[in-house]
Design goal:
By secondary structure, this protein is mostly helical. The protein has 5 helices and no strands.
Length: 320
């Protein structure tokens, strides 16, 4: 305003025509109004730009915060799930190891039982063969008429046999018994053989039942092991999927945090720039407004002086 007044004062001091000063004032006012119009247009464009940019920054911030919230929750859930799966895998491995130990023990016990059974069968067969020989020898040691061998003859036979063949010696002694006692001895031997044969048959039947149960238990253990191994594979696959998902969520969260920081910084800088534009616009607008007011006031002054000059000239003309 002061510069403007100085310019007008200089024109007046130089005795410039009032019409020239009026045109100068009109031009100054028109220039100031043009500058204000241009400033208004520029500020309008800047406000639109600020609104659009700030809206975009806010959108980016909202999206980034949403991703961070989502991935943070996902990461917590995935970590808990991964810990649960790792525990399940450890338990499954322990269960499989225990089942395999039981299976190995079962197979070892079966092998021992089969060896023991084979030994028993061999013993049964040996006993039965021995008894068959004894019974056959008892029956053939009597003379044709079925008489007992005389004691003297029996003693001579025993002396010949000695300790080399105890079974033959036993038969020799039994053959020297009276017929009734000899028959009793033969019957006793036959009964003994029958009991051993029955015991062998029962043992065979029990072994068959044991083997059947062993096969069932073995099949059940193998099925249980296979089931747990399948579950282990599935759990390990699920663990791998969850670990991959965890890695992806951590990557997304890290990227979102970078994006959030960038958007927040951009919003802060843009807000500062827009505030600066507004301050400059308001300051310059106020300055131009004041200058326009000054011009209008001066115009009013000169307008009054011109009107007074016109009145004066009219009075002189009227007087002449």
């Amino acid at each position: 305003g002061k510069n403007l007044l100085d310019t007008i004062a200089l024109q007046v001091q130089n005795q410039a025509p009032l019409a020239d000063i009026s045109r100068l004032l009109a031009n100054l006012k028109a220039d100031l109004e043009r500058q204000q119009a241009e400033a208004d247009q520029l500020q309008s464009e800047r406000e639109a730009e600020c609104a659009q940019a700030i809206a975009e920054y806010n959108r980016r911030i909202e999206v980034a915060e949403g991703i961070i919230d989502e991935t943070t929750e996902n990461i917590a859930n995935l970590k808990a799930k991964i810990a649960e799966l790792k525990t399940a895998i450890a338990n499954l491995k322990q269960t499989i190891a225990t089942l395999k130990e039981h299976l190995a023990e079962l197979i070892a016990d079966d092998a021992a039982e089969r060896d023991a059974f084979a030994n028993r069968i061999e013993a049964y067969n040996t006993q039965l063969e021995g008894l068959d020989q004894i019974i056959e020898m008892l029956k053939t040691q009597r003379d044709e008429e079925g008489e007992a061998v005389p004691d003297v003859q029996s003693l001579l036979q025993l002396a010949k046999i000695g300790k080399k063949n105890p079974m033959a010696a036993l038969v020799q002694v039994a053959a020297s018994l009276p017929r009734e006692q000899w028959e009793k001895a033969v019957n006793l031997m036959s009964e003994l053989r029958e009991r051993i044969a029955q015991k062998k048959a029962a043992d065979i039947q029990q072994e068959a039942a044991r083997i059947q149960k062993f096969e069932q238990d073995k099949a059940a253990l193998e099925k249980n092991i296979a089931s747990n191994q399948q579950k282990l594979r599935e759990t390990e696959a699920e663990l791998a999927e969850n670990e991959q998902s965890l890695e992806e969520n951590e990557r997304r969260k890290a990227a979102a945090e970078v994006e959030l920081a960038s958007a927040q910084k951009g919003l802060e800088e843009k807000t500062a720039q827009c505030n600066k534009w507004r301050e400059e616009y308001e300051r310059d607008s106020e300055k131009r407004g004041n200058e326009i007011d000054v011009v209008e006031q001066v115009q009013q002054i000169f307008s009054n002086r011109i009107a007074s000059a016109k009145d004066y000239l009219k009075e002189r003309i009227d007087q002449e």
